[in-house]
């Protein structure tokens, strides 16, 4: 089993990286393979709303989104991390998630996911909520913890000093590992993902 962790920060080794590594370390203890992908130094354009992905089965903008999209097909779960900017996630992470949802939504569906936010002080809950909305519209079980998945600080050393935050991240990893094992156990016993109603769109032209 494998989890992809996406770092939506412009800083390669900042607070989000520290948070994701805490989770990854715990997942490894649970015998879950991990891969952390950083969006730092990468330009992620907005979704064009062109609908080309419906025919191409990939995004027409051939960049990091398609690279991660191919990994999404084989992954069992996801964690998306972001710093908090004006009470919302980073623009690059939102653009990535918008386009992944459009072009690779069928491969995200029914795979567990979690959001992690970091902040100096406030706004992280709002940012956390925005990321979770991508999961709820893509049939993705949302993994929680013993508190909202957030840690505080302006530097990685601050993050490692947030004991409650570290406990929350470790418990998040344990919950993710448990859900993955439950899903795998279900498959082995003939319980597969549900067959959903075909999408009916009102006011569709």
Termini Cα gap: 41 Å
Query: Based on helices, strands and strand pairing, what is the structural class?
Result: alpha/beta
Average residue-wise pLDDT: 96
Which stretches are poorly predicted, pLDDT < 50 over at least 5 residues?
none
Describe this structure in words.
The chain is an alpha/beta fold and 205 residues long. Helices cover 45% and strands 14% of the residues. The protein has seven helices and five strands, in the order E-H-E-H-H-E-H-E-H-E-H-H. A five-stranded parallel sheet has the order 2-1-3-4-5, with helices on both faces. Helix 5 links the parallel strand 4 (113-119) and strand 5. Helix 1 packs across helix 7 (163-188) and helix 3 packs parallel to helix 4 (91-108). The model has no long low-confidence stretch (mean pLDDT 96).
């Amino acid at each position: 089993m494998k989890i992809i962790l996406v770092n939506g920060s412009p800083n390669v080794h900042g607070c989000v990286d520290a948070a994701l590594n805490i989770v990854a370390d715990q997942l490894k203890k649970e015998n879950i393979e991990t891969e952390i992908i950083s969006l730092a130094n990468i330009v992620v354009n907005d979704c064009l709303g062109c609908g080309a992905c419906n025919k191409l089965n990939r995004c027409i903008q051939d960049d990091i989104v398609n690279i991660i999209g191919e990994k999404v097909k084989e992954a069992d779960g996801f964690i998306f991390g972001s710093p908090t900017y004006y009470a919302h996630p980073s623009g690059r992470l939102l653009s990535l998630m918008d386009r992944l949802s459009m072009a690779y939504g069928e491969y995200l569906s029914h795979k567990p996911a979690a959001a992690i936010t970091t902040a100096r002080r406030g706004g992280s809950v709002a940012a956390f909520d925005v990321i979770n909305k991508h999961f709820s519209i893509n049939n993705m079980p949302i993994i929680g913890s013993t508190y909202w998945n957030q840690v505080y600080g302006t530097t990685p050393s601050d993050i490692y000093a947030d004991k409650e935050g570290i406990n929350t991240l470790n418990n998040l990893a344990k919950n993710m590992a448990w859900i993955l094992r439950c899903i795998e156990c279900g498959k082995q016993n003939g319980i597969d993902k549900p067959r959903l109603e075909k999408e009916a769109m009102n006011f569709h032209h």
